[in-house]
Amino acid sequence: MNSFLARLPSKLVVRVQKNEDWLVRLFILSFVVILVLLPLHAFLSTWLGTTIGPLLVWKSWKEILLLGLLPFLVFYFWLRPNILQILWKRRINQIIVAYVLLHLVLSVFSHVSRGAIVAGLLINLRFLAMFLLAQLLIETKHPWVISLKAFLPKWLLWTTLVLSILAIAQVTVIPRDFLSHFGYNKDKTIAPYELVDQNPQALRAFATMRGPNTLGAFLILPLLMAVYLIVKRREVYLSGAVLATGSVALLATGSRSAWLGFALGLLILLVGLLPRSKLRWLWWAMPVLGVGGLLLLWLATVNPNIRLAVFHSRVGRTSLITGSSEQHVSSVVENAKDALAHPLGQGPGAAGPASYYDPGGTQIGEDYFVQIAQEVGLLGLAIFLAINILLARQLLRDNEDILPRVLIASLAGLTLLNIFLHGWADDPTAMTWWGIAGLYYKGLTSNSTSRPKRPRSDARAL
What DSSP state is assigned to residue 204? Predict the structure, then answer.
C-alpha cells in the first residue's frame, strides 16, 4: 500500500480502493473499445456520420474518448502517485512529454488554420496517448489486464481473417460501388472504390479501412504474428488461414510499401526464430530473390498486368516509373527541401493529412518522417526517432512472449513503410500497434506497484 493510503483511516482506504478499481476498469474498457472498433472506424464513421451526423464528431470519437479520460487519469494519479512516479521515471515517457510540449509550443506560432492545428495535434499524438495508457494499465496489475493480454492475439487473428475475406471479396464479387450506399463519396468522404493508375480493371482492396495503403499497413502485424505462431508454436489452423487469406488481401491492396514492409518484417522475424542450422538456407535464398527481382523487372516491360501491379504504370506511359511512382518521388523531394528550409518546423497541421484542414493548401510529402520534420522541425524528428529507438531496445530485451518478438519485426517493417507513406497518421495501424506495444513495454514484472489486496470476488476476468 502506498504512503498516501497509509495515512488514511481504514474506512476511507476501502472507499479509495473501490474508486481505484472503478477507474481502472473504465480505463481498460475504453482501451478495449478503441482497439476493437479501430478496424471498423472508417466504415462506421462514414456511414453514421453521413446518416446521423455530424461527420467530424464520428471521425473523432476515439480522440474524444481519450481526452474524456484525462480528468479520471488525474484523479487516479492523485490516488496512486507511486504509479505516476514509476511511469515518469521511464526515459521514453519523459521524451514523449517533451515531444508533446514541443507540439504545443509550435502550435502557438503556426501559420495554418486552427482546424489544421487541432487535426495535427490529434494525428501526431493520439497513438502515443494509447502507448501511455497501455503502460498505465500494466502497472495497475488489475486481473482484467492479464485477460486483455491473453485476448489480444486471438482478437487480432480473427479480425484479420474477417478483414482479409472482405478485402478479397471486394475485388472479386462485391459490386465496386457497393460502399456508396453507406455514405462513401469520392468528393465528400471516402471513395467507394480505388483503382491502380485509373485502370477500371484493376481494383484495389481496402475492406473497412480508409484506403488500400491503410489496410496493407494494418495487415503487417497480424500476418507476422501468424508466421510466428506457425513456426514457433505449430498453431497451423487459425494462423494458417490468416496467413493465407491475409497474404492474398495484402497483394490485393496494391500497396507496394506494405509489401516491402511485410517482407522486411518477415526477414527479421525469421532470422530471430530459425535455428542457425536453417539460417544458411535463408542466406542462400538472397541471391535467388535478387535474380527474381531482376526477372520481375524484365517481365514488367513485356507484361502489362505485372507492369500495372508492381509499378502502377499502364502501357503507353513513357517509362515504368511514370505516373504515381514519379509523383511520389517528386513529392518526397519537394517536401524534404521544404523541411530543410524550415528547420525549426512550421507547426502541427502544416503538413501531412492534417494539412487538408488548412484552407491555405496541403503539403503531402508521402513520407511520415518528412512530415514530422515539416511540422515540428529537425528537433521534433530527432525526438520521435529517439522514442522509436528506446521502444525497440526494450522490445529486444523482453522478447520471450509472442507479441514482443512480432512487434520488433513489425516495427522495422512499418518504419520502412513510413518512408513511403504517412503510415503513423493512419489511426487503425498507429493506435493499434502503439497500444499493443505499450502493454508489452514493461510487462507484468514490476513489483513496485503491487495493488492493495482486494476481495476474491472483485478479480473478475475481462
Answer: E
